[in-house]
Write a structure and sequence with these properties.
Layout (H helix, E strand, L loop, with lengths): L16 H51 L8 H12 L2 E9 L6 E8 L6 H6 L3 E2 L1 H4 L2 E12 L6 E3 L5 E3 L25 E11 L11 H4 L6 E8 L1
Parallel strand pairs: 2-3
Antiparallel strand pairs: 1-2, 1-4, 4-7, 5-6, 7-8
Length: about 230
C-alpha cells in the first residue's frame, strides 16, 4: 500500500520581473511629480512671506510720517515737506535692531542722519537712524526714499494770490524723480503727495549708508507706492 500523501499544487504565484519593474517605474514617476510640485509651493510660501513683510514696512512708514510725535515740532506736514524739499528727496531706514546684548529685536525707523532742511525740520528730527545704529541691524535693512509725486499739482497760488509753480512737469533724467519748485512758505495745498520707493538691502561690509538718487534710479525697489501727509 502506498502511504504517500498527495498535496494539491498551489495556484499562488509571485510577481514577475516585468511587473516589478513597471511598479517601480510608476512609483518613481509619482515621486518626481510630487518633487516638481514642491518647488513652486515653497516659492509661493516665500513670496507670501515677502509680501507680508513689505506690507508691514509700508504700514510702519505711513504711521511714522503721519503720526509720529518724534518728528513734529509744529506738524508732521511741515516736517516731512521740508525734509523732501531740502534736496528733492528724503531717506528713511526701517530695520530690526538687537536690544543691547540680548538676542531680542525691535523694529526701528528713522531719517537718514545726514538729512538737511529748514531749522524747523532740523529741530524736529529726533527719530534718526545713524550709520552706527544700522551696524546693529538684525536682517534686512529697508531704505525708504521719499520724492515729490506726480499727484502734486503743477501750479498753485501763494499767500498773495500769485501763481506759483509747485513742481517740474517731467521727471529729472538724472534722478528719475520730480523736482519741487517751491518752498514750504508758498505751498498752499492741503496735502503733500510723495512717491515712496522701498529698497531691501543686506547689512554688513557691502552696505552703503549714503546713496544718491542717481545711484538708486538704476536699482530695482521691492515696492513703490504713493502716500500723502495732510496739514
Amino acid at each position: 500500500m502506498n502511504h504517500e500523501q498527495e498535496f494539491p499544487m498551489s495556484n499562488k504565484m509571485g510577481f514577475s520581473l516585468i511587473e516589478v519593474v513597471i511598479a517601480i517605474g510608476i512609483f518613481l514617476v509619482t515621486v518626481l511629480a510630487l518633487v516638481g510640485l514642491l518647488g513652486p509651493t515653497l516659492q509661493s510660501v516665500d513670496e507670501v512671506e515677502k509680501t507680508d513683510e513689505v506690507s508691514s514696512i509700508v504700514n510702519t512708514v505711513n504711521a511714522f510720517l503721519h503720526n509720529s510725535d518724534a518728528i513734529a515740532t509744529g506738524s508732521n506736514f511741515e516736517t516731512v515737506f521740508n525734509a523732501v524739499a531740502a534736496g528733492n528727496s528724503a531717506t528713511l531706514f526701517v530695520y530690526q535692531a538687537y536690544r543691547g546684548d540680548t538676542e531680542a529685536v525691535q523694529l526701528k525707523v528713522g531719517f537718514d542722519e545726514n538729512e538737511t532742511a529748514s531749522p524747523a525740520y532740523a529741530d524736529a528730527v529726533k527719530a534718526t537712524a545713524s550709520e552706527a545704529d544700522l551696524d546693529d541691524a538684525a536682517g534686512t535693512i529697508y531704505r525708504v526714499v521719499l520724492t515729490p509725486s506726480s499727484v502734486i499739482p503743477l501750479a498753485g497760488t501763494d499767500l498773495g494770490g500769485n501763481s506759483v509753480t509747485y513742481r517740474s512737469s517731467e521727471r529729472n533724467n538724472a534722478t528719475d524723480a520730480y523736482t519741487l519748485s517751491v518752498g514750504y512758505a508758498n505751498y498752499w495745498e492741503g496735502s503733500f503727495a510723495m512717491e515712496v520707493r522701498i529698497y531691501a538691502e543686506s547689512p554688513g561690509p557691502t552696505f552703503s549708508y549714503t546713496k544718491t538718487l542717481g545711484v538708486l534710479k538704476d536699482e530695482v525697489p521691492v515696492f513703490t507706492y504713493n502716500t500723502a501727509v495732510v496739514r
